[in-house]
Amino acid sequence: MYAFTYERPATQADALKLVQGGGQPLAGGQTLLGSMKLRLAAPEQLVDLGAIKELSGIRREAGDIVIGAMTRHADVAESAEVQAAIPALARLAGGIGDKQVRAMGTLGGSVVNNDPAADYPAALLALGATVHTTGRKIKADDFFLGLFSTALEPGELVTAISFPVPKRAAYVKFPQPASLFALIGVFVAQFDDAVRVAVTGAGNGVFRHPAMEAALGQNFSPDALAGVTTDEALASSDLHGSSAYRAHLVGMMAQRAVAQALS
To answer: Whole-prediction pTM value?
Structure first.
């Protein structure tokens, strides 16, 4: 590690001033602290958001489930409100990492980090969520820009995320055994007027699958996806799996997600 200053503001306003002054927001620290140890990140000031009560919590608002950015994964997984309205989201949160990660990691931290194999981005994209920041509201379709990149501007903080409640939904992933990140994860959500399918783990970032959405819009069943393929160009190859393997897994995970949503 190296020298840096540490601030722990008690209000969102104080945190925003520090961040706009160049401070690095610290949510759960599951990625940032490891990156600092490896010298991949070198902030001069850390702004710990953990003491800001207004950034945590889960509530129902105008038909949506609204979750504060600093809400821990474990709290999302155990929330009776989330379990009743969007059980797929609760199950997703309960499958992130291990108990230690779920006890510290936050919804906002995961979304802003936008790891290409993270689980939450698939939920936001498939559910058509809205990211609330200190200055605006950003649709999930416009928020994720690729590998570790989002539409968030410097000095801007995510405060909450609102999730529309679907008719039915499910998330299924093929986890990488060591990290439990998604080698491939597919989130399927059916609404009254549309079906949305989001894929994580395949390549440089989360993306929607229009062909699957069209097929499921006509017939919401696993069989509807039997002839739908995924372009290998959308998937990456590494020591965990080839692009062809990942593309194949997309179809398998999608069919399982639809079956789970119908069960």
So the answer is: 0.95
